[in-house]
Design goal:
Helix content: 40-55%
Number of helices: 17
Largest sheet: 4 strands, mixed
Radius of gyration: 21 Å
Distance between the termini: 41 Å
Length: 432
């Protein structure tokens, strides 16, 4: 049977069901550049509005997975466990977590993504390390994993190529916040890694793509179901993204903060989440006392040494990890100050992430270049006491006019009240 993309757009626009055969045709044709971006973006928007039912989602994920190669690491003796986040502001957990988990006995074939919308991407952060290449062919990916127990890379052209194209398109067309598109994107890549286990960090709140807890639970359950159906033991932690994670939002500055975690100097919330996710990774790998093992790898410096080792294997300059002051830094700095005394009751992750993106930390178009040196350092978060005139954030920027046009918007991220409040609970729940 012949299919056309226009008919599929109309079908989903009108709330009707796509057949598995049409989905397979579409994603194959899109991968081969036979379907233009403007038609795929229209279909993606129709999916944002009308969703995919379970049969459609299964077919969509399977077609994404089968659009490329599936890796086979069966010769690796260690359990193969990965972690993936649905995207947050200041979420650099993968960077300290992957080497820590590897030191503790699991192999981590981590295939990460670039920034989506207002959220940062692990690959963009890693590429702020001079020389660090995240583009590896499958042979080099395998070599690094077998030699070092961890690899930190993006999708090769042969791994879920349909997703690789669609991922960038969604970022530039406002079609990111869709449960079926998020779930199929993440799980098609992860299932291609030949994993034994997968831990998902599903964000909820202002800075997440899923703003409310019920939608976040639905996304978590959807992805856990996909993983389980494919024989990969999958656990999701639903975690808060009401405010940025850690104190740094930016690319090079988040590498700096990742190094601080591995030195035992990281901010409490970032350390807490790194240990929580790492403990589940080790649990899925059959390793007991995971939190204690992870803390030991921080205290004895082996986690940091593993990150340095892996960065070198990726072609990165290890000197910036030993001395993060050498990382790129934008030339200009300004501060946001508190308009009154009191306690911070809100530090909106969406606002902070959006402004950081517009300063150059993220992309508004597929072809935009990332500026690794721009960023925002948060000096006050929810629960902190401030006085009038005290610094809420330090902003590093390159273009004065761009900063001036977004300064007032960043100021709206904070609310200050007269009474103390507790920071939001970081780990909301575990599924299953």
């Amino acid at each position: 049977m012949a299919y056309t993309c226009v008919e599929m757009i109309e079908t989903k626009r009108d709330g009707r069901k796509l057949t598995p055969e049409s989905i397979e045709w579409l994603l194959t044709a899109y991968t081969r550049d036979e379907v233009p971006d403007y038609q795929m973006s229209a279909l993606a928007m129709a999916i944002v509005f009308n969703g995919l039912d379970p049969e459609e989602l299964a077919a969509w994920t399977e077609a994404m997975l089968n659009s490329g190669d599936v890796m086979d690491f069966s010769g690796l003796p260690a359990p193969k466990i990965d972690k993936h986040s649905t995207g947050g502001v200041g979420d650099k957990v993968s960077i300290p977590l992957a080497p820590l988990a590897a030191v503790c006995g699991v192999a981590v074939p981590m295939m990460s993504g670039r920034g989506l919308g207002h959220t940062g991407g692990t690959l963009d952060k890693l590429e702020s390390i001079p020389g660090f290449t995240t583009r590896l062919d499958p042979v080099r990916f395998r070599e690094i994993l077998f030699d070092h127990g961890v690899v930190l890379a993006g999708q090769s052209e042969t791994i879920a190529p349909a997703d690789r194209k669609l991922y960038a398109l969604r970022d530039a067309t406002g079609t990111v916040p869709s449960i079926p598109l998020i779930a199929s994107s993440i799980m098609s890549k992860k299932l291609a890694e030949g994993l034994d286990g997968l831990v998902l960090d599903v964000k909820t709140g202002s800075g997440a793509f899923m703003k409310d807890i019920e939608r976040s639970r639905e996304l978590a359950r959807t992805m856990v179901g996909i993983g389980t159906a494919h024989g990969v033991e999958t656990v999701a932690l639903v975690t808060s993204m009401e405010q940025p994670l850690g104190r740094e939002v930016g690319n090079a500055s988040e590498i700096m903060e990742s190094v601080a975690v591995l030195r035992g100097e990281g901010p409490p919330d970032l350390v807490e989440l790194t240990l929580a996710l790492g403990e589940v990774m080790l649990e899925l790998g059959g390793i007991d006392a995971g939190a204690d093992r992870l803390r030991s790898a921080i205290e004895d410096g082996s986690g940091l040494e593993k990150l340095v080792e892996v960065a070198e294997a990726h072609g990165g300059d290890p000197s910036v990890l030993r001395d993060p002051d050498l990382l790129p830094r934008a030339p200009n700095e300004d501060v946001m100050s508190a308009a009154q005394s009191g306690y911070v009751t809100r530090c909106d992750a969406l606002v902070v992430g959006s402004v950081a993106t517009r300063l150059g930390a993220g992309r508004e178009r597929k072809e935009d270049e990332i500026d690794p040196g721009v960023g925002i350092t948060l000096e006050a978060k929810i629960g902190d006491e401030v006085t009038k005139g005290s610094v809420l954030a330090r902003v590093r920027y390159r273009d004065e006019s761009v900063w001036e046009s977004h300064k007032d918007h960043l100021a709206t991220a904070w609310e200050i009240g007269p009474a103390p409040v507790a920071p939001p609970t970081l780990v909301v729940e575990r599924i299953p």
